[in-house]
Design a protein that fits this description.
This protein has about 475 residues and is mainly α. It has 22 helices and no strands.
């Protein structure tokens, strides 16, 4: 047995050495598998205190089963000796029972031992099943799990039986749970915004806004909006504000207006004429603005209404006007000031969101908490919402299972393939070996009873 295990170890080392020279691609793949299963392999190749206690239990049960075999063997020897010494017919019955018990015990010992190692170290075919067929067992286990646990029908039935929608709703309806989810969402949001680089986000936002603006013509939309504003009289309030502010400004800056007129007059005109002209211009301008402010039906207001109406129509139907608006839009978007404004907008939004996520009493967190509580209450009571949530979860789970079934089952097969055969055998034996020893004990008892029955029937028929 020892020589056989050493031969197996040497064969593993030889294969590992050959695999190590197969090329950089194979080495990379092997390294990836090794990293993936490193923790599992360490767990399989080491024995915990619980494992050691199980191994001691297996040894105790082995001694019990072996002791029972030795006991029936001793009974067989003694009854045979007693039979030769002239004992009564009872000796034959006991000897037959003991003989059959030995046969049953030896047969079951062979069967149990053949699972883990070669009986008596002899390389008998179909023995040492676990160490020699470990990889095949891993493949079979993976296929079994894939066919019986990762099928669409099984996944849907199990998730539907659980009723995740109603349970999740009842859980979210508890204020403490809603607070916890809100805090976790806030932490995740802060983490995501912290990880993102401002320059990257600004570039993406700027590019997205520019691309969207370039792809969509804005003149027709502006024309429709202006048309509705004029029809509703919304522009009149803006005109009122402008005219009122213009009147107030003229009242306060009369000298400025007259100086402007003086400055634009020819040099050969007398100064008093320039002053009279400036005063006249200022008074007429002030009168015009005052009348426009105080008269809703002022002709200038009507002219402005007609101009805006015509301009709204041109924005929607005039080709030249629409083309000029598009050129103006492109020029505005291309200016550095506009791009800087877009970039600064992201910075302001990020800062606002982070501050709101950190503040437990912020409007953002309070609204999220209230939404979660409302959602939980509705999910716990409304069967339609529960059905939708269950359907989404089932579809998501089925997609994962059907799409990544091979990857999931290969995790089983690759993990089992990475286990050391000797340690795996010992660990499996430590976990199930104690129960297997009962097979030996039962084999001894059942064999003895069967032998006694056969001997009794034979004697009866022979009589």
């Amino acid at each position: 047995m020892e020589r056989t295990e050493k031969d197996q170890t040497s064969e593993k080392a030889r294969r590992a050495g050959a695999a190590g020279t197969a090329g950089s691609g194979d080495r990379g793949a092997a390294g990836q598998h090794a990293r993936t299963g490193a923790f599992t392999n360490r767990a399989m190749n080491t024995f915990s205190p619980a494992d050691e206690e199980k191994r001691r239990g297996v040894r105790r049960m082995k001694l019990t089963a072996t002791g029972l075999l030795l006991f029936v063997a001793l009974v067989y020897v003694l009854t045979k000796w007693a039979s030769h010494q002239g004992a009564g017919p009872w000796a034959g019955y006991v000897a037959a029972a003991a003989e059959a018990g030995m046969v049953g015990a030896l047969a079951d010992w062979f069967a149990v031992t053949a699972l883990f190692r070669h009986p008596l170290g002899l390389p008998i075919p179909h023995t040492a099943i676990i160490p020699t067929k470990k990889d095949q067992l891993g493949v079979s286990l993976g296929e079994f799990v894939g066919e019986n646990f990762l099928s669409e029908d099984v996944v849907r039935q199990r998730l539907r039986a659980v009723g995740i929608g109603s349970r999740l709703g009842a859980w979210l309806a508890v204020p403490e749970h809603a607070d916890r989810v809100t805090a976790e969402l806030s932490a995740a949001l802060r983490g995501a915004l912290t990880v993102l680089r401002d320059s990257d986000v600004q570039a993406v936002v700027g590019e997205a806004i520019t691309r969207r603006a370039d792809a969509q013509e804005i003149a027709p939309g502006m024309g429709k909006m202006l048309e509705r504003i004029v029809a509703d009289g919304g522009h009149k309030r803006a005109v009122d504000v402008i005219v009122t502010r213009g009147h107030d400004w003229l009242v306060l800056h009369s000298d400025t207006v007259m100086d402007a007129v003086h400055g634009g007059a020819p040099g050969w005109t007398p100064r008093f004429v320039d002053r009279k002209v400036g005063e006249r211009v200022y008074k007429e301008l002030l009168r015009f603005v005052t009348e426009m402010r105080d008269m809703p039906s002022h002709p200038a207001r009507g002219a402005l209404d007609r101009f805006l109406t015509d301009f709204a129509s041109d924005l929607q139907s005039d080709t030249d006007t629409r083309a000029r608006v598009e050129r103006l839009k492109s020029e505005i978007l291309a200016r550095g000031e506009v791009q800087d404004l877009i970039a600064s907008a992201w910075t302001a939004v990020r800062s606002m969101i982070v501050s709101a996520a950190e503040d437990e009493r912020s409007e953002l967190r309070l609204r999220v908490r209230a939404s979660l509580l409302s959602l939980g209450a509705r999910m716990s009571l409304d069967p339609k919402i529960q059905g939708k949530v269950d359907g989404w979860l089932e579809s998501a789970a089925v997609y994962v299972v059907t799409t990544y079934r091979k990857e999931i089952t290969s995790l089983i097969t690759d993990t089992v393939a990475g286990w050391d055969a000797e340690h795996t055998t010992k660990k499996i034996e430590a976990n199930i070996g104690r129960d297997l020893q009962f097979i030996r004990i039962n084999g001894t008892v059942v064999g003895s009873l069967a032998g006694l029955l056969i001997y009794t029937v034979s004697r009866a028929l022979g009589a």
